[in-house]
Amino acid sequence: SAARVFFTFVESIVESSMGRGGDNTTPLVATEFAWSEVTKHRTPKDAWLVCENKVYDVSGWHAHPGGDVIFTMAGFDATDAFDLFHGPGTTKHLAKFCVGKLKDDDRPKTCDDRPKTKEQVDFEEGYRALRKRLAKLKLFDASFTYYAYKMASTLAIAVLASAVIAAQNPAETTAKARGMRLLGASILGIFFQQCGWLCHDLLHNQLFARRRYLGKYFGLFWGNLAQGFSVSWWMNKHNTHHSVPNVHATGADAQNGDPDIDTMPFATLSRRPGGVDLLGLVHATCWDSLPCLTHLKALVRASFSRARRFLAWSKPMLRLVGDSSFAKFMVTHQHVLYLPILAFARLSWLEQSAAYVLNLDETAGRQIKGGKPGELKPVPYEKTELFLLGLHYAWYGYLAYLHPTVLDALGFLVVTNVVCGLALAIVFGLGHNGMAVYDAARRPDHWKLQVTTTRNVTQDPFGFVHWFCGGLDYQVEHHLWPTIPRHNLPKVSELTKAFCKEHGVKYHTAGILEGTVEVLDHLKAIANDFLTDFPAM
After folding, report:
1. How many CA atoms lie within 13 A of 483 on its CB side?
2. Which of 387, 417, 428, 6 is nearest to 197 (CA)?
3. 244 neighbors 258 (Cβ within 8 angstroms)
4. Structure pTM?
5. Structure confidence by residue, pLDDT tens digits, 338-369
6. Residue-wise pLDDT tens digits, 11-57
7. Alpha-carbon torsion 223, 229, 233, 234, what sign?
8. For residue 535, how many other CB atoms are within 10 A of its CB?
9. Strand, coil or helix: 41
10. Contact 68, 104 (CB under 8 A)
11. Are 440 and 257 in contact (CB under 8 A)?
C-alpha cells in the first residue's frame, strides 16, 4: 500500500542516519570493554550502551524511530529497557551498531562497578520470567473490538459537545444559552483528554504491535488532528520520561534525565540539590501560547531566562540570587500554586507541539544537544503533522466562531483548555509526583526504578477512575510494560503486585483525592526545607 511504501522510505532514511556504530557491516564482538570504559560514553554525541552483555555505539543516532529515548541508556545496561520498548524481531537491527562485548568480570556488576548480589540476580531473572509469562497468557495482545469501541465512544463525546454548542441560537446571549455553551466547552475539554489517552495507547504500539506504521497514522489522527498535539514532539518527550522516570541527568551534556520533572513551574519536586530546572512549563504557558504577540513573547522569554537562575532547586544557583522575594514567594507557595498552574497545561503543550514541529527558536526542543548550530532532530512526516495541526485549529476555531460575542468565544477557549489541562495534568501528577527521585548514575535496575517512582490509582466500583485516567491508573504496570494494551492492565496488576510482594518491592496505590493530597504535602514539605536550608532568602 502507499502507506507502507511511505514508511519504508522513512525507515530507509533512518538507516542512513545511524550512529557511528551503525557504520559496521559485520558485528564487532572481539573487543571487550569494562563498565569503566562504557560509562565514559554518556552523551548523545558519544553514546554507548549495553544490551545482553554486548556493547553498542549509537552516537548521534537522533533518527532512532522512538526518538532520543535511546540516549537515556547511554553508559548503562539497556537490556530490560530494550526488551520492554521493542516488539519481536527488533533485535536483528542491533548487529550493525555492535562494537564489542562486556568483559566477563564486569557482567555480574552494575554500571557503577557495584557487584550484584545473588538476591539482585535472582530478582532480575524473576521479572524477566514474569514478562515471558505475560506473553504466554497473551496479555500483550490487543482487542480490536475494545479499541474500536474506545474510538467510537470518544468521537461521540466530540459530537455531543459540538451538538450542545450548535443547538444554541448564535445570537442569543441569555444566561441559559451561555451556560449550555460552557457545558459544551467542558465536554469538549474531556474529549481532548480522552484523545490524549487514545493517542498514548496507539503510539506505545498497544494496538498495532506488528504494523506500527498503522499506529502512527491513527496517532496522527487522534494526536494532531483531534487533540492538537504533535506526535513527534510527544513521542520524543514521553518515551524519554518512560525510560528514566523521576531521574536527574548526570550532567548538562547528558540526556539521561526525565524531562517531566524539569518542567514544573514555581515548584521544586525534589530535595536533590543541584540541576533541577523549574522553569519549563511556565516558560511555555499562557504567554508563550500567544505566538502572534511576538514582542511580548520576546520580552517575557528574556525575563524567564533571567529567572532561570532562581527558579531551580540548586544551592549554588540560589546563593547567586541573593534575597530575591520572587524566588522565595514561588518556592514557598508552590503547594498553593500547583493546581492553578495545571490549568494552563494544555496551552503549554499546544505551544510546545507547534514550536517543536516548526522549530520556532532554540527553546523548541528540536536542537540536538551538543550538535552543530542548526542541527535538528528529525520529524519524519513534518508536512503531514503541520497540515493536521492546521486542520485541528480550523475545526476548533469554527466552534469558537459559533459564539455570539468575542467574550463568549474567549470563555469557550478558556473552559476547554482549563478542563482538559486539569483533567490531563492531575492524572500525570498522580503518576509520579511525590515518589522516589534518583540520580541517573545511581539509579536502580529498570524494574525497581519504574515501580518505586510510580503511584497507581485506586479503582472505584463503577469504572470511572479507569475511564478518566485512560489506563494510567495502572501506571506501575504501564511503565513496566508500555506495550500491554489498556484493557489487559487489571490482570497484569494482580501478577505484578504478587511479584513485588514476593521480592519486597514497595508497590504504592492511592485514591485520586488521597494521591493529590500526597503530592501537595510533598510540595509543601520541600517548601519548608527551602526555608530551613536558605533562611536568608
Report:
1. 20
2. 428
3. yes
4. 0.81
5. 888 888 889 988 988 999 898 887 777 787 77
6. 444 444 455 655 555 444 568 999 999 999 988 889 999 999 999 99
7. negative
8. 7
9. coil
10. no
11. yes
